[in-house]
Write a structure and sequence with these properties.
Elements (H helix, E strand, L loop, with lengths): L2 H31 L3 H4 L4 H12 L4 H25 L5 H16 L3 E7 L5 H9 L2 E7 L2 H9 L5 E3 L3 E2 L3 E2 L1 H10 L28 E4 L1 H6 L1 H5 L5 E4 L3
Parallel strand pairs: 1-2, 1-3, 6-7
Antiparallel strand pairs: 4-5
Length: 236
């Protein structure tokens, strides 16, 4: 098959995907219309995981991660569209907007802050913007950040909850519910990712890439353009 013929087939498949996506979004809107706010905001994580497991079961191993990224995006946009159509704005989204407006009035200049990752991570950059004078403690995972604040070890925790590329950071939403925490302040931060390799490395020679799940999700379009490259999810 020539490249031109393949492109025509891809265009036809894209048209089918677009039509099915519209149908799915319409159904999501109907579900949200019949649900109260609490039900509408439920992530349905277990159901979604089961769906991803089912639909990717027969896929080639190298495609499964990309398929998961696709379905994560579909779930996030479906929930957002359904809630918007039903007039049910997200509580967390409302809290973010409120924090952006009022945060400057009620926020301390200095604090002990918990961040996930290591020095130089985006969490630290965000913390530095919010707290001009701060002591930052770094933790392995998001749950540990919540634990540090809960135990009084830190005054605040800095965590990502929304991304303009891939939507909600669902794991943080779950932890907010688990610990009954609230948003005290929010900022918007520009995120830029770079692919690092040894000097003079030909990009075609790269066989494996390691990164955090959020970075992988945010760079999914670029990563999918690298044929034969295995993408590995790791913590910071």
């Amino acid at each position: 098959m020539s490249a031109a013929d393949a492109k025509l087939k891809i265009d036809a498949i894209d048209d089918e995907i677009a039509a099915l996506y519209v149908k799915r979004m319409e159904l999501a809107s109907e579900v949200a219309a019949d649900s109260d706010r609490n039900v509408a905001e439920t992530d349905g994580t277990l159901v979604e995981k089961a769906t991803v497991s089912r639909v990717t079961k027969s896929m080639p191993e190298g495609m499964k991660l990309y398929a998961k990224q696709l379905f994560d995006t579909i779930y996030n946009t479906s929930r957002a569209y359904g809630m918007e159509s039903a007039g049910l704005p997200s509580k967390i989204r409302s809290a973010i907007d409120d924090a952006l407006v009022k945060g400057e009035e009620r926020f301390p200049v200095s604090a002990t802050v918990a961040c996930q990752g290591v020095a130089g991570a985006y969490a630290q950059i965000a913390a530095d913007k919010m707290f001009p004078i701060s002591d930052i403690l770094y933790f392995k995972d998001w749950d540990s950040v919540f634990g540090a604040v809960e135990r009084g070890l830190c005054d605040f925790g800095v965590l990502p909850i929304e991304n303009s590329s891939v939507g909600s950071v669902n794991a943080v939403y779950d932890l907010m519910r688990k610990h009954s925490f609230h948003i005290a302040r929010a900022i918007r931060l520009r995120v830029q990712h770079y692919l690092l390799a040894n000097a003079d490395t030909d990009i075609k020679a790269i066989k494996e890439i390691y990164s955090h799940k959020q970075a992988i999700d945010q760079c999914s379009e670029f990563l999918s353009s690298l044929p034969g490259v295995k993408v590995n999810v790791v913590e910071n």
